[in-house]
Amino acid sequence: MPQALRPLAALLILLGAPAAAQDCTALDPARPKDAFRAFDCVSQLDADLAKALDRIAALEARLEAMTRQTDPATLLGPVNERLDAMTIKLTKAGIVPATGPNSETRAVIAYTSQKGEKTCPDGWIPFEPAKDRFILGAGGAYPVVGSTGGAAEVTLTEAQMPRHAHTTGISRGEGGGSGYPYSRPANGSGDPTGPAGGLPDGSTQPQTNMPPWIALSYCIRN
């Protein structure tokens, strides 16, 4: 066998192609019969080499998969999620204090989904006190966190109406005439005096004063 092919044949033996490789290593180029067989060996070695490369690629893929499985981030991800869930349960039970963003059970978020198929994300439930309400930042005028107020509609009272005035037109003139044969016509002049009134207007319907809005779901940790 040519000296250059001996390392290749040895590699193929290690990779699981012993039959053809062993036959080729036993060839003696000095013998004419073996010289002709060398061409067949080269072809066979090429085929075995292709198979060996496929096996190497498969081994590399398995090694990469094993590396991902043993990656600390991959291994610890589910563990951390389970620990967070356990911490939340213990916190709600009052066994451990709430610490860290993943353990906070009183956080409230505004949530929406593209098709409205979910009210809240996984691990969250609707925050019932916020239904049909705006969120107002607690401060000086509203110091109590969790307090509620306001109304969806308001009916104005007379005291809440802006100051305004109404005008009434009055005509002046003389009047006279008779209704009986011996009656005397009555004539008069002067400015009329006395109260003047008008008919009420309006329907006292409640009104809304909401700005443009979009409805989202307020959610709290479960």
Task: Label this structure with key terms.
222 residues; mainly alpha; 4 helices; 3 strands; 34% helix; 5% strand
How would you characterize the overall build of this protein?
This protein has about 220 residues and is mainly alpha-helical. Among the domains are: about 5-70; about 70-100, no CATH class; about 105-135 and about 215-220, no CATH class. The protein is built from 4 helices and 3 strands; from the N terminus they run H-H-H-H-E-E-E. The protein has a 3-stranded antiparallel β-sheet, with no helix packed on it. Helix 1 (about 5-15) packs antiparallel against helix 2 (about 20-25) and helix 2 (about 20-25) runs antiparallel to helix 3. The longest helix has about 40 residues, at about 30-70. It is elongated. The two termini are about 75 Å apart. The model is unreliable at about 20 (pLDDT under 50).
> Structural class from helices and strands?
mainly alpha
What order do the helices and strands follow? Answer: HHHHEEE
Q: Which stretches are low in confidence, meaning pLDDT under 50 for 5 or more residues running?
A: 18-22
Write down the Rg.
49 Å
- Arithmetic mean pLDDT: 71
Work out the helix count: 4
Give the overall silhouette. elongated
Strand order in the sheet with the most strands: 1-3-2
- Portion of residues in beta strands equals 5-15%
How would a crystallographer describe the biggest sheet? Answer: 3 strands, antiparallel
Q: How many angstroms separate the termini?
A: 75 Å
How many extended strands? 3
- Estimate percent helicity: 25-40%
